[in-house]
Design a protein that fits this description.
mainly alpha; 0% strand
Length: 161
């Protein structure tokens, strides 16, 4: 019995990549919601810090906490904000896979674009999008870990002061 590799169509590959992109967007949306709650909580912590008499290290840790929180929020937003193709990348080439080009295409341009394009271009473009989102979501999660660490250290320092 020979080992036969399963055949995967180009459409299935493209569909899988698009599903992964949607999963990254969902994860980023959840992270933004969690970070919003943490951000709201940071005002309560700030009020406690201002009314108490703590050492300079508490203010320093709070600063790092806010910096990490800001970085995590920005990275999460970069995952879900759609990007437009740069006009300088291909000024005269219109693609049937890019919504920005589709909105202004005539029927003849659309048919011409369909005959020129391959699934490879779509797979490659969506892979680049997925990779960028993957990098941003990972960085956001690592930044969230820093936020939680600074928060726990901050609470601990306030309790022992």
């Amino acid at each position: 019995m020979a080992n036969k590799k399963p055949e995967i169509s180009k459409g299935e590959i493209l569909s899988g990549i698009k599903e992964q992109i949607a999963a990254f967007d969902n994860k980023a949306s959840i992270l933004i919601a969690v970070l919003g709650i943490v951000f709201a909580f940071s005002f309560s912590v700030l009020e406690i810090i201002i009314t108490g008499f703590y050492g300079w290290w508490v203010y320093l840790i709070y600063g790092f906490y806010l910096l990490s929180l800001t970085v995590s929020i920005i990275l999460s937003l970069l995952v879900i904000i759609p990007r437009e193709r740069k006009k300088s990348a291909a000024p005269n080439i219109k693609s049937c896979t890019y919504y920005g080009d589709l909105k202004g295409m005539t029927e003849n341009e659309f048919v011409e674009s369909l005959t020129k394009e391959t699934h490879f271009e779509q797979i490659q473009t969506n892979s680049k999008i997925a990779w960028r989102k993957h990098k941003f979501i990972r960085a956001s999660i690592f930044s969230l870990i820093a936020v939680c660490t600074f928060l726990f250290v901050l609470i601990f320092l306030m309790l022992i002061s």
